[in-house]
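User: I'm preparing a small set of examples for a lab meeting where we compare how different chains pack in three dimensions. I only have the primary sequence for this one, and I'd like the structure in token form so I can line it up with the others. Please keep the answer compact; I'll paste it straight into my notes.
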Amino acid sequence: MNLFSGFVIAILLLQALAEASSINKAANALAPVEEGRNVVALDSKHHPTKINCGSACSRRCKKASRKKRCSRACKSCCMRCHCVPPGTYGHTNACPCYARLKTHGNKLKCP
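Assistant: Understood. Below is the structure token output for the 111-residue chain.
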């Protein structure tokens, strides 16, 4: 009987060590992670970085035939998505939110 109780205690100790190890791994996963210049904690809500929509949209719309219209739509999209694709046309895979926005007529909203 003494051998059996020793065996049960050993199993309980192993189980406690395994649980402590998994808790330690979970605590390490919630530690801050370095992402370029910004430090982001995985358990906090992520806020996108602010960009200068005016200069980004003027660069995006510099070759547009209707610059005011392009700039107005671009700024609206930039304020929602916090990004503007590079170049003057296309490259929407760099900013998926920008590519998903549509008008009421189901046309692409963002230039």
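A couple of notes for your slides: Residues 81 and 97 are 6 Å apart (CA to CA). Confidence is low (pLDDT under 50) at residues 33-44.

User: Perfect, thanks.
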